[in-house]
Design brief:
Largest sheet: 5 strands, antiparallel
Helix content: under 10%
Distance between the termini: 6 Å
Radius of gyration: 18 Å
Shape: globular
Number of helices: 0
Oligomer: single chain
Order of helices and strands: EEEEEEEEEEEEEEEEEEEEEEEEEEEEE
Number of strands: 29
Length: 328
């Protein structure tokens, strides 16, 4: 398997493109200068395009992905608000763009050539939405709204427009600040990371989703300033990881066989202020970006225990804030 790691370094307008070998070692393939500050990235389902959200002149930039993972600028299209997260529906027909700063979410259609087009819907009145995720059935969009302590749920209509399912809205603990979500790869279970309390809520689908667990991402005896950032699960559904920026570590949870219960196993130091991290497609490596070090760290994941062992660090641009993994 050939894997490529894309690192977005916001403050110096760079995307660093790295190849990863089977030992987790990285080799720099390309450094792309972007037209503006990169905020977030997502790959098209067919792996032909990398969609990039930028500020200050807010827009979506589409890069064509060549066979080696090298990027070539393909198109640009303006959007109404600063993007903080990008996601696609399961069919790759629509791009969802929440804006924490402008309190809205934009939907762009993607044409038959894989290129995003002008917005067809902007949902206003959201309280600092930080991300969005379509469910496994491609019917419902989950939107964690950090500023209002709610996860807002929207029906995805056939024309790409969204209709809020207000009766299904999920409220989190006051002041918790729901931020990012991870889906269990096999079960209808969803894990929501709360930024301001550094906790995770676990939701299981009965007739609708209900919270079944609430757990800290730090040991009970550890007193911290809460500032959680990102959450990911290994492809086998056995291990969950979450990043905490205040003390710069990655928390590791064991996931029960049915996916319903998390158990905090350990915390591991990583590069300073890990806003974004990701897990490679094989589930053998975790790549973490340190906003305050201008480095990324690669850690090996033990296939049995899930233990993290840092194996190398690599310099990147100023303020690395997003990690995306491509596998051929």
């Amino acid at each position: 398997m050939y894997q490529v790691i894309y690192i977005a370094s916001s403050w110096n307008y760079k995307i660093h493109v790295w190849s990863m070998n089977q030992s987790g070692e990285l080799t720099l393939l390309q450094t792309v200068t972007t037209p503006d500050q990169v905020q977030t990235m997502v790959l098209s389902h067919d792996k032909k395009y990398l969609y990039v959200g930028v500020r200050l002149n807010v827009r979506i930039i589409t890069y064509q992905v060549e066979k080696t993972g090298i990027l070539y600028l393909k198109s640009e299209i303006p959007i109404p608000s600063i993007p903080v997260h990008l996601s696609l529906d399961r069919n790759g027909k629509y791009l969802f763009i929440p804006s924490y700063h402008q309190n809205n979410l934009t939907v762009l259609p993607i044409n038959s050539n894989g290129i995003p087009q002008s917005a067809i819907h902007v949902v206003e009145g959201l309280g600092n939405p930080h991300s969005s995720y379509i469910d496994i059935d491609n019917k419902q969009l989950w939107v964690p709204c950090l500023g209002e302590d709610n996860i807002r749920l929207f029906k995805l209509n056939k024309d790409g427009r969204l209709t809020e399912s207000s009766e299904d809205k999920i409220s989190t603990e006051k002041g918790s600040g729901p931020r990012h979500i991870a889906f269990h790869p096999k079960e209808k279970i969803i894990y929501c990371l709360n930024e301001l309390h550094s906790t995770i809520n676990v939701y299981y689908k009965y007739t609708c989703y209900r919270q079944i667990q609430h757990i800290n991402i730090y040991p009970e005896e550890k007193k911290i300033f809460c500032w959680a950032a990102d959450i990911h699960i290994t492809p086998d559904g056995r291990h969950l990881y979450a990043s905490e920026r205040s003390d710069s570590y990655i928390s590791h949870f064991l996931i029960s066989n049915n996916g319903k219960t998390l158990t905090l196993e350990n915390i591991y130091p990583t590069v300073k202020q890990p806003r974004s991290f990701n897990i490679d497609t094989t589930g053998r490596f975790l790549i973490s970006s340190g906003q305050k070090t201008n480095n990324i760290a690669v850690s090996a994941i033990d296939s049995i225990t899930g233990k993290l062992t840092q194996i190398n660090c690599y310099p990147v641009g100023n303020n690395p804030i997003w990690v995306t993994v491509l596998a051929f």
